[in-house]
Q: What sequence folds into this?
């Protein structure tokens, strides 16, 4: 039996058929055994019904993308076959519910279709709701994983139910496995995976990592309005915030959420909000207020496909320019993007430091693939999180006598003024959205405007010294090509880079972390090493490439690989585009 590098499993059907919960059981058992996993949920933007899939890539080594060729597709309806049969590898097996009389006329060569009684078996075991458990048993039998762990996981999953319910689900699993065992003469085994090395891994979604990063950074207040694909951040915070004596408020809209987070930060509490594109648009005025009033503010934007409501459950990276420009006037802000799933934790934690050090809004820009989908990542290391509150003064301020105020907006060489919060003795100052003098009193004198504006813009000059602006895999001083990506494209680019280097192509890779202020000088060194630059992004207008053109025009034009159909970029597409460019 051949040894494989990975398996890719997918189940499809209608929302509400338990597809995600079946996939979750499979993932949890394999995660506990130490396998590296990458999952992907694709679902319609509705409460119930509509086509949905849950895919899981299973490997013994680190992976950062969902991969491409499916080994085992579980089809609960014909639509799943119609939409996903072309994704199958030669030798792959589609297990379809016999109830809908699956049609096999569109199957690729070398793909086997097994029509098995998924619905009927679930009924015999006691409930139609157990179709996903029957299908799970079939999948485990096909992939060849030990079954005992799954029986235990099913029992744990339904531990709050009666013994009868647990027994019925275990039986459904075993019957599903038996049905595939009886068909083994009709398909070829997919092979085996090597036992995974011992590693301290956790299987989690980026939204959970973001919430944990905020908590680790000392955030104790969140105000938010539910929006796909960011809602799980608030849901996780609600489940955990009591343990740190914090609070979460679900507001009436995103404007209120952002203003409440701003107010909490003004009062001295580390606070934040989370949203997606439409909500970020509504927050623009508050972001501008935070900039001129120099109030720390962290906003998480988990990008989805726009414009407007767009495709709320599909991946896109089309908020890049919106995040940079989402405020009027010459605003001062930082935009930072996690380059991987585990960085959702570390980058979020650092965002709170940046917000307080530079006294400005910080937008953490993630994408739907990172936010909504689970992946195996190294166990999070809270010891790496350091809390730095910058120039915050809470005691020992010089005595003030009436009518003096604290010079909250003092002009300094660094551009960063000493900051205090309400209630600190001798720390009284004024704060509005108007241009102001040193104590915050509204002022429109030309010299004061210039001093304050220059001060606010000057303070960001050291951000690149505090933040690693990108993750670099650039071994070649004279590269044929430099691949540039953002957020979740990193996994596909890594796989493409490995293939290209094996072909003799000198490919360097940079995954951008700091977007605003743009790390022009650091990137110039990397861009100058390459004959060509290919920028990989999920949008139609090459937003990331346009930023490179703006800041590094001497290397333009930049090549692009764009995808904006709601599906993820894959390694083979990146490699193919590189070959075209070269």
A:
């Amino acid at each position: 039996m051949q040894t494989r590098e990975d398996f890719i499993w997918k189940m499809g059907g209608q929302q509400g058929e338990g597809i995600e919960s079946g996939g979750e059981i499979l993932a949890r058992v394999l995660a506990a055994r130490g396998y590296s996993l990458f999952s992907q949920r694709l679902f319609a933007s509705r409460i119930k019904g509509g086509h949905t899939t849950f895919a899981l890539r299973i490997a013994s080594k680190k992976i950062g993308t969902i991969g491409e060729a499916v080994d085992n597709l579980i089809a609960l309806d014909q639509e799943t076959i119609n939409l996903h049969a072309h994704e199958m590898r030669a030798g792959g097996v589609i297990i379809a519910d016999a109830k809908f009389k699956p049609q096999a006329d569109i199957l690729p060569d070398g793909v086997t279709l097994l029509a098995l009684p998924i619905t009927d078996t679930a009924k015999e075991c006691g409930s139609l709701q157990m179709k996903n458990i029957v299908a799970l048993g079939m999948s485990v039998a096909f992939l060849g994983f030990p079954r005992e762990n799954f029986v235990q996981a099913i029992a744990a999953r339904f531990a709050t139910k009666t013994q009868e319910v647990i027994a019925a689900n275990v039986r459904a699993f075993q019957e599903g496995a038996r049905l595939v065992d009886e068909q083994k003469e009709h398909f070829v085994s997919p092979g085996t995976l090597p036992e995974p090395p011992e590693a301290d891994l956790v299987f989690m979604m980026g939204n959970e990592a973001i919430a944990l990063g905020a908590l680790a950074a000392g955030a104790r207040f969140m105000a938010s309005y539910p929006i796909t694909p960011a809602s799980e951040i608030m849901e996780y915070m609600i489940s955990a915030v009591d343990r740190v004596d914090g609070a979460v408020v679900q507001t009436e809209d995103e404007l209120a959420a952002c203003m409440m987070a701003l107010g909490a930060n003004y009062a001295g509490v580390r606070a934040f909000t989370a949203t997606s594109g439409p909500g970020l648009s509504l927050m623009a005025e508050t972001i501008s207020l935070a900039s001129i009033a120099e109030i720390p503010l962290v906003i998480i934007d988990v990008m989805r496909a726009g414009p407007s409501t767009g495709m709320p459950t599909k991946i896109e990276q089309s908020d890049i320019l919106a995040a940079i420009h989402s405020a009027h006037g010459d605003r001062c802000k930082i935009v930072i993007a996690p380059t991987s799933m585990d960085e959702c934790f570390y980058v979020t934690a650092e965002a709170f430091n940046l917000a307080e050090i530079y006294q400005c809004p910080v937008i953490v820009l993630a994408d739907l693939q990172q936010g909504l989908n689970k992946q195996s990542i190294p166990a999070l290391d809270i010891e790496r999180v350091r809390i730095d509150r910058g120039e915050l003064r809470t005691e020992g301020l010089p005595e003030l006598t009436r009518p003096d105020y604290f010079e909250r907006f003092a002009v300094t060489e660094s551009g960063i003024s000493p900051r205090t919060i309400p209630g600190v003795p001798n720390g009284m100052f004024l704060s509005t959205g108007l241009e102001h003098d040193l104590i915050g009193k509204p002022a429109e004198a030309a010299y004061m405007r210039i001093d304050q504006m220059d001060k606010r813009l000057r303070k960001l000059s050291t951000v690149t010294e505090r933040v690693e602006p990108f993750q670099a895999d650039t071994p070649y001083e004279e590269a044929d090509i430099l691949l540039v990506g953002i957020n979740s494209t990193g996994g596909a680019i890594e796989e493409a880079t490995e293939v290209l280097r094996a072909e003799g192509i000198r490919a360097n890779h940079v995954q951008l972390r700091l977007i605003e202020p743009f790390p022009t000088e650091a990137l110039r060194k990397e861009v100058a090493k390459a004959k060509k630059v290919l920028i990989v992004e999920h949008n139609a207008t090459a937003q990331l490439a346009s930023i490179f053109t703006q800041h590094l025009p001497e290397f333009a034009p930049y090549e692009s690989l764009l995808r904006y159909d709601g599906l993820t970029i894959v390694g083979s597409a990146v490699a193919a585009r590189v070959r075209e460019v070269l």
